[in-house]
Design brief:
Layout (H helix, E strand, L loop, with lengths): L12 H12 L8 E4 L2 E4 L6 H10 L15 E2 L8 E2 L4
Antiparallel strand pairs: 1-2, 3-4
Length: about 90
C-alpha cells in the first residue's frame, strides 16, 4: 500500500472491504488526480463500496497494473495487511 494509506480499525469490516476492492482493481492509495479545466485536483479515496465501484470505473486509467499472468494469482490474506503473490508464499 502507498504511504498515504491509513488502515481502518480491525473491527470495521465495511472499510476493509473497500480497501480490498480497491487493491484488487489496482488502487493502492497512490495519488489520484482529476482534471478540472486546466487544474489537476487530488481525489479523495472513497469510504463505501458503492462509491469505490464508481471510483474504479472513473479512474481506471490511473490504476496500477499488476504484473501477474493470472489475476487469480494475487492472494489477499485473511487478515488485512500486505498483498502478496502466491509464488511468494
Amino acid at each position: 500500500m502507498g504511504v498515504k494509506f491509513h488502515p481502518p480499525k480491525k473491527t470495521n469490516q465495511a472499510l476493509w472491504d473497500v480497501v480490498i476492492y480497491l487493491a484488487k482493481h489496482g488502487f493502492y492509495y497512490q495519488e489520484i488526480h482529476n482534471l478540472h479545466g486546466y487544474i489537476w485536483e487530488k481525489v479523495r479515496y472513497p469510504n463505501t463500496l458503492a462509491k469505490a465501484q464508481e471510483f474504479v470505473k472513473h479512474f481506471c486509467d490511473q490504476a496500477i497494473r499488476v504484473l501477474a499472468e493470472d489475476p487469480s494469482d494475487i492472494e489477499l490474506p485473511s487478515h488485512p495487511g500486505v498483498l502478496r503473490s502466491r509464488s511468494d508464499v
